Amino acid sequence: MGPHAALVRACGAGQANRAQLLRGDPGHRHRRQPGSLIRDRENAVKSSTPEGISFVIPCFNSGGYLVEAVESLIQQPHTFPYEVVVVDDGSDDQPTLRAISRCAERAEVRIVRQEHSGHHAARNAGINAASFEYVMQLDADDRLATAPELLEAGSYPDRAVKLLKTHQHVAFVHTMSRMIGDFDGLTISSYPCREELVLRKHHVPTSIVCRRDNAIHGGLYDPHVRKWGDWAFAVNLLAGRFRRGEANHIVCIAGPLHEYRVHSRTRRVSNAEISEFDMTMLVVQKNLDLFRHHFNRDDAAEDITRLVLASKPSRLVDLIRMAEFDLEQALTVARQRQFSLSSPFEGLGIP
């Protein structure tokens, strides 16, 4: 079957899947550890941390878009209390220092300063310093969408907090990402995620919204995982909940409500040559109990790492899953990236 046929075939279940997944994928149940009697509770005891959301922006000499990132957060139609925590990771260039000073003038912004320790250490410092019960990361060169037509149903952070507040079985909430800058279009993984997909190396965006205590109990960001850190963070979070017998549903809020900047001027870690096997194995070793439970195998970490990487979705699989969620969106992405969706034999009338 060709890619185009696969996309069309996916359309039939698209609307049903969209409705189900936007409700938090109730059909996908987290499998309990043997003997666990812990059950989900919609009205679990609230954390002592004040209700609201803390946005964490790590910044090291990346001040060119920092003010824009902060403004995109402040411009959201908030109903919950919020703060913006900018973590200055030892910046030493004057444009960045000026941008940080400008942000500090806003009442909604707090500046946390530390010696240069790396991106993940800065993220962790921001989570540890956060005042509110829920947290969301935003890179200093990215932003949240502010177009009024995208915010008619409310802001992404507000909607995410409401879901997490009322559904204890939801581990985190995510939205789709639109690329801006040198490329304009949706990311290839712009479809609802599930725990099963995360454990099979599905992409996890930076901008997930989660409970601060879940992030801390899961072990936060691992500075040793130099690439695919957002995926590693999500696995840590899921594993922490798994060990406490909690369900790991994931909810997608359609958008795109997060904007990811693509540009060559600022060096991203994502461009570095780093072994995916080595980074994945670090995550598997740390959370071997969860991976063994998911794959129903008692293999060594190295073997499970190979299994995880073999399960990683290809771009075609990503596109088909996107089509199951929204066929028109998938076709738009295919056209934007100039994917070939037709066969050279199509003109012969062969089905």
UniProtKB/TrEMBL annotation:
Gene3D superfamilies: Spore Coat Polysaccharide Biosynthesis Protein SpsA, Chain A. Residues 54-145 form the Glycosyltransferase 2-like domain. It holds the Pfam family Glycos_transf_2. One of its GO terms (molecular function) is hexosyltransferase activity. InterPro entries: Glyco_trans_2-like (IPR001173), Nucleotide-diphossugar_trans (IPR029044). SUPFAM superfamilies: Nucleotide-diphospho-sugar transferases. This is Glycosyltransferase 2-like domain-containing protein. It comes from Streptomyces cahuitamycinicus.
